[in-house]
Design goal:
Largest sheet: 9 strands, mixed
Radius of gyration: 17 Å
Number of strands: 9
Structural class: alpha/beta
Helix content: 25-40%
Strand content: 15-25%
Length: 277
Amino acid sequence: MISNHQIASGQARLAATVVGHGDPVVFLHAAVCDSRMWRAQLDALGASNKAIAYDRRGFGETRAEKEDFSAVADLLAVIDAVGNGAPTILVGCSQGGRVALDTALLHPSYVRALVLIAPAVSGAPEPIYPSEIEGLMAKLKDAERAGDLDRVNAIKAHLWLDGPLQPEERVTGEARRLFLDMNAIALRSPSAGSNLDVVPTFHRLREISAPSLVIWGDLDFPHIQERSRHIATTMLKGAGHMLTGTAHLPSLERPTEITGLVAEFIDCGSGPSNVAG
């Protein structure tokens, strides 16, 4: 059973999709996507859980007046509205991982466990790019200054879907079409306002006690791979899993594999016991 919801949080109406019944699992999308990046996982995991995905402010079908806001408070509003306020498994990719980590630190009673895919984390050191990637980042800045949103979208697909050191259009087909559609909406959305969540989570990872699985791809940015390993080994109950031949968005590129890893983690309660890669 699939249901769609508009959840109030401040001046926002957060667009959420719920599949199935049972223990809640909330999916948090990357900042170059929206909740559609989790379609395969919602369909599969909704058979035995209440699988929930929502669009954050500035993404997908969510509508919001410009205001300063808390991404963590928005997530808690979703959990209270459709997750019955129960302790929840959070599955977050990239910036969605940052929201999940901040929530686990600030509101541990809401969080049963974490699955973090190439997560961002508040307070992490600024990345230093190798020269090959620096060139692509410079092209991105040029396109942004010129207001060429189609070019910005294409470069971001290269960086985040293909991988910054991989050939452009390494990933094709439906995954690329969906990425370009999701990110085009984000690029053209008016500013949602400032996120008020300023949490030095990177330096407080050991305080997070929820069982956690960190997943990353070996074609992702080098600093994200390093950061993912650090998170997996620093958290009290963390474990890591490196995927070969994929970049930053494996739920698009390898949906069956990601679904399997998340399902296994949920079934086992704590995921693998040691770090791979």
